[in-house]
Amino acid sequence: MTADPALSLSFRRGGPAGVEADLELAPGEILALTGPSGAGKTTLLRVVAGLIRPGEGRITCGGEIWLDTAARIFVPPFRRRTGLVFQAYALLPHMTALQNILMAMGDLPREQRREEGLRLMAALGLSGLEDRKPANLSGGQQQRVAMARALARRPSVLLLDEPLSAVDRRTRRRIRDELAALRLTGGPPVLLVTHDLEEAAALADRIAVMEAGRILRCGPVGDVLADPQIVEVLDLG
To answer: Are strands 82-85 and 157-161 parallel, antiparallel or unpaired?
Structure first.
């Protein structure tokens, strides 16, 4: 891994929903997290986002310390530059699609926000839907608005929980293209939770397989999926 990773995390959270991880990601790198349901993938994302506080560990992102239990440092979620797309899209129902995106741009000059919001909507195939509220959008359209809002924050890390689970083939291709562009431009690292191994192979630089809150193996997709132990865990036989 790089000498100066964009994201470094090493933590342990005990209890029934315990999870532990030790990972480093380079700028623009996409790491897919996969494994059985209940393996701890979403919990790992929530720890990075600051929504769950682990018992011990350290997380740094973009040169900033977000968590250091030994030094009693814990940066709250609203101060972490994370772009979150969870399976529940969490769009504000009283706001339009464009307003949901613009609300993530508080650090941009007001005159630039609408232009950037429209650019993101166009990139994700949402042009013409600017004034629609979430109730008038399909599940796939809501997913893309949530993705655009996450990107609008200009995040230090992008956290995606099954982002392609509710979208059609054309939308899937648009989101893949947007993620590929982030990789090519050295954008933020991406933690991508997915059960789709074809999706992982198409998008990710590496894959980490989790079971019972632990990472069993992390590496290039082909190498990891050639491991008989991993084949058994993922029930690929």
So the answer is: parallel
In the block, tokens 């690929």 appear at 236
Say what the pLDDT of residue 3 is: 47
Return d(Cα 190, Cα 208) in angstroms, integer. 13
Entry pTM: 0.88
Q: Can you give 178-212 as a three-state secondary structure string?
A: HHHHHHHCCCCCEEEECCCHHHHHHHCCEEEEEEC
Please give the angle made by the CA atoms of 202, 123 and 82, to the nearest 5 degrees: 70
d(CA 188, CA 181): 11
Q: Are 144 and 174 in contact (CB under 8 A)?
A: yes
CA angle 177, 101, 159 (to 5 degrees): 55
Sheet holding 73-74, edge to edge: 19-25, 7-13, 56-61, 64-68, 73-74
Q: Are strands 214-219 and 206-211 parallel, antiparallel or unpaired?
A: antiparallel
Strands (E) across 26-169 are located at 30-34, 56-61, 64-68, 73-74, 82-85, 157-161
pLDDT per residue as tens digits for the range 35-72 = 998 999 999 999 999 999 999 999 999 999 999 999 99
Burial class of residue 62, CB neighbours in 10 A (0-12, 13-18, 19+): middle
If you average pLDDT over residues 158-180, what whole number do you get?
79
Amino acid 200 reads A
For residue 10, what are the β-bridge partners?
Answer: 22, 58
Closest to 171 in 3D by CA, of 145, 140, 202, 148: 140
CA distance 116 to 36: 38
- For residue 83, give every residue at least 6 positions away whose Cβ sits within 8 Å of its Cβ, in sequence order, or none: 149, 150, 151, 153, 155, 157, 158, 159, 188
